[in-house]
Amino acid sequence: MEYKKSGDLIALRLNRGEEIVSSVKNVCEKEHVTFGSIAGIGAVGHAVVGLYRVAERKYYKNTFDGEMEMTSLLGNSTEKDGQIYLHLHANFARADGQVVGGHLNEAAISGTAEIFIRTAQSSIGRKTDPATGLNVFAF
User: How many domains does the chain have?
Assistant: First the structure.
């Protein structure tokens, strides 16, 4: 993993074998990104994505293995209980063009990933929404 910061933008490159969520969190912790947006593309060989069922207040995970292009990584970095809190979604295209995606739990790079983190000069916290059980923005 290597990254470069310029103004309010961080450019992050991940290499083969590195994991996306933990790597992005590591950079956000080092750079104190408690209010930021995240976007990226790349190639993975393993991904775990989920769907949150509001009525059940539970995430359901799906695991996908094999060569896939990460056609979209979107999300944000905020703060919950004094810790960096990432909320990421991703889409992955398989060789046949089928796309899978959802809430990103983990993904291992098979080639590379190019990720941008845009930072703000403030912070946003999180609180648990009693109606859904989700950790939502706390302004």
Answer: 1
